[in-house]
Design brief:
Blueprint lengths: L1 H12 L3 H19 L3 H18 L2 H17 L4 E5 L2 E6 L2 E7 L9 E5 L14 E4 L4 H15 L1
Antiparallel strand pairs: 1-2, 2-3, 3-4, 4-5
Helix pairs in contact: 3-4, 4-5
């Protein structure tokens, strides 16, 4: 019985195929970033990589990611688009502030728009750091724009 318990425990501690793929993507992103030249070249390549990653997404996720990309760029032009674990993300001073995770990324039932700890969203002792998205309305876009502006502040 102990052997079967160990086997189960080991299995739950392993990464899924999707998680391993995300880690490999992150390693490739770090290597690519180290190889590039000027800051302007890196910024252009990072934005092109984000646009290309969005183009690879399934229809519903792609439509949301395109709108979020536009909203983030308009709301916080100081945030730099970049890939982060294979997801479109937006960074300030090299640190990811917010990101979009498509539903297909980890076979989830909804996409996610999230914020990292570098985001200036502190509100009392508890505040949301991620939002589930099934579609985007104009009100959702406005809310995301306000949150991103605050987060980048």
């Amino acid at each position: 019985m102990a052997a079967s318990t160990r086997k189960t425990t080991r299995k739950t501690e392993t990464f899924t195929d999707e998680e391993r793929a995300a880690m490999k993507e992150r390693a490739q992103e770090v290597k690519a970033s180290a190889r590039r030249g000027s800051h302007a070249d890196k910024a252009a390549e990072d934005e092109a990589a984000v646009v290309a990653k969005i183009a690879e997404m399934e229809d519903a996720d792609r439509a949301m990611a395109e709108r979020i990309h536009a909203v983030v760029k308009a709301s916080a032009p100081g945030l730099a688009p970049k890939l982060w674990y294979g997801m479109p993300a937006y960074a300030k001073d090299g640190k990811v502030v917010c990101f979009f995770q498509s539903a297909q990324k980890f076979n989830a039932r909804y996409a996610t728009f999230g914020f990292n700890d570098k985001a200036n969203l502190d509100e009392g002792t508890m505040w949301p750091t991620a939002f589930a998205l099934t579609k985007l309305t104009a009100a959702d876009e406005a809310r995301i724009g306000e949150l991103v502006k605050r987060a980048a502040g």
